[in-house]
Specification:
Keywords: Magnesium, Membrane, Metal-binding, Methyltransferase, Mitochondrion, Mitochondrion inner membrane, S-adenosyl-L-methionine, Transferase, Ubiquinone biosynthesis. The protein has ten helices and eleven strands. By secondary structure, the protein is of the alpha/beta class. The chain has one domain (76-318): Rossmann fold, CATH 3.40.50.150. Strands 1, 4, 5, 6, 7, 8, 9, 10 and 11 form a nine-stranded mixed sheet that branches. The radius of gyration is 18 Å and the shape is globular. The relative contact order is 0.18. Residues 78-79, 83-84, 87, 104, 141-144, 147-148, 163-165, 168, 191, 208-210, 213-214 line the site of S-adenosylmethionine. The site of S-adenosylmethionine has 22 residues, from helix 3.
Length: 328
Amino acid sequence: MLRRVPPSLRRALLSSASTHYGGAQIPNPSHSPSQTLLPQWRRHASVASSSAPPQSPPPPSSPRGPSRSGGGGPTVSSPNPAEVAKFAAIAETWWDANGPFKPLHLMNPTRLSFIRSTLCRHFRRDPYSSKPLEGLKVIDVGCGGGILSEPLARMGATVTAIDAVNKNIKIASIHAASDPTTASIEYCCTTAEALVKEKRLFDAVISLEVIEHVANPLEFCESLSALTVPNGATVVSTINRSMRAYATAIVAAEYILRWLPRGTHEWSKLVTPEEVSLMLQKAAVSVEEMAGFVYNPLSGEWSLSDDISVNYIAFGVKKSETPSTNCT
Ligand SMILES: C[S@@+](CC[C@H](N)C(=O)[O-])C[C@H]1O[C@@H](n2cnc3c(N)ncnc32)[C@H](O)[C@@H]1O
């Protein structure tokens, strides 16, 4: 269920009608992007825009969280203090499989399967070996309590994991210390931007369910790219800004099922697949594969899908010729 994104997609995206978003030129939904996109992407665009939202979110009873700091034009990509406060408030619950992070626990095997398969293909590893990521330096940006970092370490990666919330890092470190395989994870309360300044580089930069919480998504993508070695991998997952996402990921998950605390996701801050592709493209990362995650309420399981209208994950490759000053 992995979808390859051909290089020509990037040209098509860049030539499509655009609007300003955190500094990135992105397709303007009102310009019907499917008219300018490749057939393969048109299916994505039609899925996303069939539920295509107007630029203002649907009328909530009050499902919106705090406003993005700095109003419409923040210049600091991360962290967003209001978002940091939200996660600090529930930090104790990271490893409670029935707590607020239950959806992430349930999604974990599926997103790991995407990461394993894309990274193994890219780095020419055997996905069936016990430690397919052995020798790869991987960073988990916005790691929370470490529910993704730990299995990455078990797959053999040398893992650095960072989060803007100190309580998350403390909980992640304590949890990882109980197992020798995960005790080697380097946990640090910091931001991607700070590590860019330190000129840190990684073979794979992974940031799942974080971009929708940062103050400036484009600058965040630029930092993820700057942390990635040339020809390295960048993986981002998030929630689409679609009406379906509003209905399921916000209204159902936060208000009906109460999986997540109300206000966890702010609809207007969600990012579409086209926007992620363009922001990464602008940051010298080409999105090569994309997949959706769909939830089966009967089995309670998530699976990979072509449907990227709600939850999706993108795998990109950092261009080898880059003007980045951080590469040595
Ligand atoms: C929804 S959780 C996702 C956690 C983890 N990536 C996962 O999927 O299991 C978002 C995490 O991003 C962190 N976060 C938010 N903004 C951040 C930023 N600018 N830099 C680093 N971490 C950030 C939050 O503290 C929180 O732990």
